[in-house]
Amino acid sequence: MDVVSDAISAVRVGSPSSSRLRVGGAWCVRLAPYEGAGFHVVLSGACVLVPDGGGDPVALGPGDVVLLPHGAGHVLAHAAASPDEVRRAVPFAEVRDTDVRRPGPGHGVELLCGKYRLDRSRTHPLMAELPQVVHLPHRAGGHAELRAAVDLLARELDGHRPGGCLALPSLLDLLLVYLVRAWMAEAATGAWPAVLSDPVTTAALRALHSDPAAPWTAGRLAAEAGVSRATLARRFTALVGRPPMAYLTWWRLTLAATRLRETDAPLAAVARETGYGSPYALSHAFSREFGITPGRYRALRAR
User: Fold this and answer.
1) Which residue from 293, 287, 243, 294 is spatially nearest to 270, judged by alpha carbons?
2) Hey, CA dihedral for 155, 58, 29, 47, is it positive or negative?
3) What is the DSSP-derived secondary structure letter of residue 130?
4) Is 52 exposed, middle or buried (0-12, 13-18, 19+ CB in 10 A)?
5) What span, in angstroms and rounded, lies between the C-alpha atoms of 38 and 67?
6) CB 253 within 8 A of CB 261
7) Other CB atoms within 10 A of residue 122 CB
8) Parallel/antiparallel/unpaired status of strands 90-91 and 28-31
9) If residue 282 lies in a helix (H) or strand (E), which one and from where to where?
10) Helix axes 199-210, 229-240, angle to 10 degrees
11) Does residue 62 contact residue 154 with C-beta atoms inside 8 Å?
12) I want to staple 64 with a disulfide (CB 3.0 to 4.6 A). Which of 60, 73, 190, 252 is the partner?
């Protein structure tokens, strides 16, 4: 596994959901805050996204994609919506999967709106660093993989293609990966785009994520990265924010939490998969990090 794949897999739960929205004239719909991540793909037409809390409106055009990685509440509206119209926005649940026609000027808009279910209890810092709104406008030649995913999504939305029930959620998962990649490629600031552009730190992270249960030491990891222990410690800590072995401990416990949440594997098996010599050693480290025993954590997540 690589860091981006692991960062997404650690928080993603279940399958994404999506709705097709067709609106025309003067319209405003409100999407409440959500314990996950929201996204919108503009299939045709133009509209505006207004974040809650007074953020600047974001103009969206055909082919644009927007991700709200922290589930922020927002309004989608016709391009000329007034502040008063935004305040009186209709809840999204009342208009999704329907054709809503309002009197007034303006051409029709078609969007794919959806949500990813996320467990934020152990969010990877890469995901935590994403801004409240990630807007990726359609540009000729820009982010070819993302554009291809959007085109494939548009073709699957008619609901009549064989295998569409499997293809659509898979494409939505792919969309999330491409959105994160595109943000990293365009981010002017942020720690993790810098982390993953540094060859030494990237080599160390790739090694840890590829085999987190291995008996890693500072010396072995430095050899894997091709530098001295001091150089690795200095560069890794400066970019990631914690020393390599501290990151490894955190990541092992994050993986353990994911296994406890998603499987019924015995604690001994989870311990082996995450580099702990015994269930007791895992339980001790897990309780110190989470403030709760693995068994109690699993029971709470199941409930």
Assistant:
1) 294
2) negative
3) S
4) middle
5) 6
6) no
7) 18
8) parallel
9) helix 279-290
10) 90
11) no
12) 60
Beta sheet of 99-101, edge-to-edge order: 99-101, 17-24, 109-117, 36-44, 65-68, 134-136
Q: Residue 139 has which token pair?
A: 């540009």
Angle at 38 between CA 194 and CA 143, to 5 degrees: 50
Residue 284 DSSP code: H
The whole-number pLDDT of residue 201 equals 96
Strands (E), the chain: 17-24, 28-31, 36-44, 47-51, 58-60, 65-68, 74-77, 90-91, 99-101, 109-117, 134-136
Sequence length of the chain is 303
Q: What pLDDT is attached to residue 159?
A: 63
The two three-digit tokens of residue 151, written as one number: 């085109």
Other CB atoms within 10 Å distance of the CB of residue 138: 16
Given this model, what pLDDT does residue 100 score?
A: 45
Q: Which amino acid is at 293?
A: T
Per-10-residue mean pLDDT for the chain, 303 residues long? Answer: 86 84 87 91 92 88 93 91 88 64 58 88 88 87 84 78 82 91 85 92 95 96 96 96 96 93 92 95 94 91 73
CB 124 within 8 A of CB 254: yes
- Nearest residue to 256 via CA among 267, 245, 248, 246: 267
Q: In what order do the strands lie in the sheet with 28-31?
A: 58-60, 47-51, 74-77, 28-31, 90-91
Full-model pTM:
0.84
CA-atom Rg of the chain in angstroms: 22
pLDDT of residue 107: 59
What are the DSSP E strand ranges found in 204-278?
Answer: none
The whole-number pLDDT of residue 105 equals 45
Burial of 114 (0-12, 13-18, 19+ CB in 10 A): buried
